Amino acid sequence: MIDHLSRQGRPSRTALYLRCYPSDTAGLECQHAALERLALQRGLPEPSSYVDNGMRSGARLPAFERLLRQAEHGWVDVVLVPGPFVFSLDDRAARAAVRRLEALGCTVLELPGRAARARPPAPCGASGRLPGAPAGAAAPEPRPLGRPAPRPLPVDARTA
Questions:
Q1: Model confidence at 136, in pLDDT bands (50, 70, 90)?
Q2: What is the C-alpha to C-alpha distance for residues 28 and 82, in angstroms, rounded to an integer?
Q3: To which H or E segment does residue 100 belong?
Q4: How far apart are CA 158 and CA 51, in angstroms?
Q5: 116 CB contacts (<8 Å, ≥6 apart)?
Q6: Are residues 138 and 111 in contact, defined by beta-carbon separation less than 8 angstroms?
Q7: Mean pLDDT of the chain
Q8: DSSP-derived secondary structure letter, 85
Q9: Where residue 113 falls among pLDDT bands split at 50, 70, 90?
Q10: Which residues of 98-118 are buried (b: 16+ CB within 10 A; e: fewer)?
Q11: Rounded to whole angstroms, how far apart are CA atoms 87 and 8?
Q12: Domain ranges in the chain?
């Protein structure tokens, strides 16, 4: 079930936020499962879910507003998202939302992988892997959204 409470009925210190316009229940369920797996892999508590399915980023976003209130009270310190696009397709607005959460003391983590940063993942297949992930491949580490990604080492430096 996707709601803003943990299964124990109280706010979790970890949250996940999802928004899709137009409404895409199957895509959100896939992203929700991927974010729950990320929390499990990182040893985080079960995330509370905040979902604004079918809402435009410029409209009032009730679930995002609830998430901000929870963060203001110190009840959330990690927010998991598939990518910054979940806040807005406008890069400046998306960065502003991340900075707002960080100013409230939250660390915002996105799903790893270039596809997650570029666009929402396609619905999951039966494998349970993120789309585009090769079978048996280790998932790359998620990176905090407010910080630049590290640059890869030149080929010469990796072999030395």
A1: very low
A2: 10
A3: helix 91-103
A4: 41
A5: 82, 83, 110, 130
A6: no
A7: 77
A8: G
A9: confident
A10: beebbebebbbbbbbbebbbe
A11: 27
A12: 14-130+138-159
Joined tokens for residue 150:
């590290």
Residue 24: other Cβ atoms inside 10 A? 16
Residue 80 has pLDDT above 70, yes or no: yes
Burial class (CB in 10 A: 0-12, 13-18, 19+), 29: middle
Residue 65 contacts by C-beta under 8 Å, 6 or more apart in sequence? none
CATH topology of domain 14-130+138-159: Rossmann fold (3.40.50)
**Is 121's pLDDT higher than 60?**
no
pTM higher than 0.70, yes or no? no
Radius of gyration for the chain, computed over Cα atoms and rounded to the nearest angstrom: 16
Q: What is the DSSP string of 117-135?
A: HHSPPPPP-TT-SPTTPPT
Alpha carbon distance 130, 48 (integer Å)? 21
Which of 64, 41, 22 has the alpha carbon at shortest distance from 140?
41
Tokens of 56: 């435009």
pLDDT tens digits, residue range 55-66? 998 899 999 999
